[in-house]
Each structure stands twice: as C-alpha cells, then as structure tokens.
Write a structure and sequence with these properties.
Length: about 280
Amino acid sequence: MPRVVELHSYPVKGCAGMSLTQAALTPSGLAHDRDFMVVDRDWSFRSQRRDPRLALIRPEVTAGPEETLTLRGPGVEPVRIAVDTAGPRREVALFGRPTLGIDQGDAAAGWLSEVLGAPSRLVRMPPEHHRITDGLTPGRAGYADSGAVHVVSLASLDLLNERMAARGGDPVAMSRFRPNVVAGGWAEPHAEDEPRDLSVGDARLAFAKLATRCAVCLVDQDTGERAGPDPIRTLAGYRRAAGGVAFGAKFSVLTPGKLSVGDDIHAGGPAGQIPGS
C-alpha cells in the first residue's frame, strides 16, 4: 500500500520548504504553500532558474490572530514581518501572465535584496484571489507553477539515481524536485503518473498533469548552486514528455482535509470515479 512518507510546504515560491508531519490541505494546496512570491524591480517573479540563492532562504509561517512570516538566510539576521492581507492589490507577473499580489513592505524587500544581491520585493497572494491552473482536472493554486499538489514517489527517485550511477554520476536528493507529497510503497517507478484520483487521509485529489522539469532541479538545494547537467540529462534519456522531461505528477484538490505522514494513499481510476464514492 502506498503511503505518505514526507510532506513539504514552500511558503515563498522558489525558497526552501518546511518539512511537516501533518498539514491542512486547502482548495489551493497545502496550507501556506506558495502563498508568497519574490519579485524583481519590474514586479516579475524570481525563480531559482535565474536566482539559485533563493534555495538558501528558509521561510517559516506562524499562524494565529496575526499571521507572521520569518525569513532566515546565510550571513544575515532573520527578518520577521506581520503578514499584510489587507493592503492594496497590484498586478505582478508569473510566467509573463498577470496575477495579483500584496506588497509586504520595505523590511522584507531590503532583506531579500541584500541576500539575493538584486532589488527584490515580497508579495502575498490576496486571500480572495483564486488562481486557476490547467490540466486534465483544473484546480486552484497559489503561486505554484502548475497544479496545487506535487506528488513524487521514492521508487521514481531510486530509478533515476540508478540510471545516473550507471552513467558515472552522483545521486541527487528528493529536494531537487521540491515535492509536496513524497510517497513510499509503490513498487514500480512513476506509479504516481497513473492514478486519476487519490484519496489521502480525509482529502481527495485529482490528476492534473505530469510535472515537466526545468532548470530548478539542477540547483543543489543545500548550497544554492547550480550543479547540472544532471538530473535533466539522464531524465531526457527515458522520461521525455510533451514540453520537456517529466518527473512526478501534479494534482488538483477535490476535497480539502488533513494530510499526515503515514497516511495510506488510495489510488483510483478514471477522473471522476473517486475511491469509496
């Protein structure tokens, strides 16, 4: 039986994740996942594709009557901000497409600019804004690239590392792929590609699309340095898909709930046929 072995939320798009033992699953994904985004002087998003040092920024969200966000990074004092969800909405660009953000002030902007060495600001997705992502089952998401929940299995990573070793390469960590849910117990690699519905805990997910990989997986998430050409080079030899190479799958949220490490993953068939319904 496949099961959840790791859970990760990434409060700030492109920055380090928070490892969790349990998490609320909202209609837009794990709580706080990609709620925030770093933008440049043109209000366009920053990504590890261009700014690999984003990987060294460690965010932590503290919920409560007043939500706070703490950012930590190498060689600088942490900054803690009160999250603004009521400020003016302004247009920001995500992959060249307009969406909305709430600027989080000069303290966060100054800290990010120092760490990244380039003018930067931090925005938060407005609570009322519902960004729709595409795929077989469209869904809602924050600033995630596509799809609210990214699932990768340990078997898929094992196969990739075996193939890289056969080429004389070193293994890569799962963190290179920045999944939300890491699944153990699937015997076959890439079994996460097949189900059209997943029931996990008291939540239900529906398949949206394969996760096509970009240059972000070339970045060592511990050092913030680009370390390619693998794993892209090896994946290209056996995982070609429309638009690139695929590793993992994206799912939309059908029924919010709670996910926990250790939860069984019940896989269903064609979209719309939910296990147990």
